[in-house]
Design brief:
two-stranded antiparallel sheet; mainly alpha; single chain
Length: 125
């Protein structure tokens, strides 16, 4: 599943931009495509257990990211089944989102890393 989400994220980021997305609430800076490629690499590192800060404690985007931020718990459901994002250069892109797990991952890649939102996985027993 993690590998499928990583592949879906990469594919979603490679889609040609098509439309407009309302400003992300509270977001003052929008990352460009090159910066998003970096946050995508970090997302893959978390999912694979190669992140020094999370290591093998990775569980899911819902458990390690969304549930740590009350605004994401309530707001990301509006991203399903998809949303449109506008980049700083004016290009636009539609992102298809199947569930809260994908919404959390895409939020981190597009906004969360740049907002310095923490990722914290509950300890595994």
């Amino acid at each position: 599943m993690k590998k499928a989400l990583a592949i879906a994220g990469i594919l979603a980021l490679s889609i040609t931009p098509t439309a407009s997305f309302a400003n992300h609430a509270g977001h003052s800076r929008i990352a460009d495509q090159n910066e998003i490629a970096f946050s995508e690499m970090l997302a893959i590192a978390y999912e694979s257990g190669r992140s020094p800060s999370i290591g093998t404690d990775w569980i899911s985007w819902t458990e390690c990211y969304v549930n740590n931020h009350p605004d994401l718990i309530s707001g990301l459901h509006g991203w399903i089944p998809g949303f449109i994002h506008t980049f700083p250069n004016g290009s636009k892109q539609y992102f298809s989102v199947r569930d809260i797990e994908e919404a959390g991952r895409l939020h981190y890649v597009l906004y969360g890393y740049f907002e310095i939102r923490g990722i914290n996985c509950p300890a595994r027993n």
